[in-house]
Amino acid sequence: MKRIIIADDHEIVRAGLKQIIADDPELSVEGEAGDGQELLEKLRKNRYDVVLLDMKMPGRSGLEILKQLKMEHPSLPVLVLSMHPEEQYAVRTIRAGASGYITKETAPDRLVEAIRKVCSGGKYISASLAEQLADSVADSRSKPPHEYLTDREFQVMSMIASGKTITEIAKELFLSVKTISTYRQRILEKMNMKNNAELTHYVISNNLIE
């Protein structure tokens, strides 16, 4: 029996995932967490065979939680579950140590298969994601501008493009307005852009936001 813990801040989503997993007699949901900190605390106290991790939860970003989780439990498979399209986060999560990436849209059909794959030590990625990963290790000169952003810069860029103000972003990420402003300036410099409008146009044009 493979023991699973689900980390998602929406109870209805966790219930839906449990229902899908219940169809397989060899899989059992033994833990739930509503945010990243709760997940890390439960992992320190109990043993699980696989983590289902939502990318977007309150507080620290899913990528930050993933990185800390892999530092503390390097051999524990993590299957990232996200409402975001693969273009936005998939390559970054695999680089950060995830064993697989699955969108919530495809979860009803592929979740059990994905869990089984990562539990057996494999990676669960779609054909399109495999292509993205191959491209990401190709000649760096062919990389699109957003690939040069850090994970935090990428997160801030996505939030700016979704229409959030600097103050709103600072509050959501528990950072100062000054820090977010510094991130914004760095992002504009790296992307060779002048303002939020150009940034937003780029993000939407490249399908980097849900």
- Total of DSSP H or I helical runs spanning 4+ residues: 10
Strand content: 5-15%
Portion of residues within helices:
40-55%
Residue windows where pLDDT falls under 50 for at least 5 positions:
none
Averaged pLDDT = 88
As a whole number of angstroms, the C-alpha radius of gyration is: 18 Å
Structural class: alpha/beta
Q: Choose one word for the global shape.
A: globular
User: Element order, helices and strands?
Assistant: EHEHEHEHEHHHHHH
Distance between the termini: 35 Å
Task: Tell me the major beta sheet.
Answer: 5 strands, parallel
Enumerate the strands of the largest sheet in spatial order, edge to edge or round the barrel.
Answer: 2-1-3-4-5
Number of strands: 5
Oligomeric nature of the chains: single chain
Can you give a write-up of this model?
The chain has 210 residues and is α/β, with parallel strands linked by helices. It contains ten helices and five strands. The chain has helices at residues 11-21, 36-45, 62-72, 86-95, 107-119, 127-136, 151-161, 166-173, 177-191, 196-205, and strands at residues 2-7, 27-33, 50-54, 78-82, 100-103. The chain has a five-stranded parallel β-sheet, sandwiched between helices. It is globular and about 55 Å long.
Short description:
With 210 residues, the protein is an alpha/beta fold.
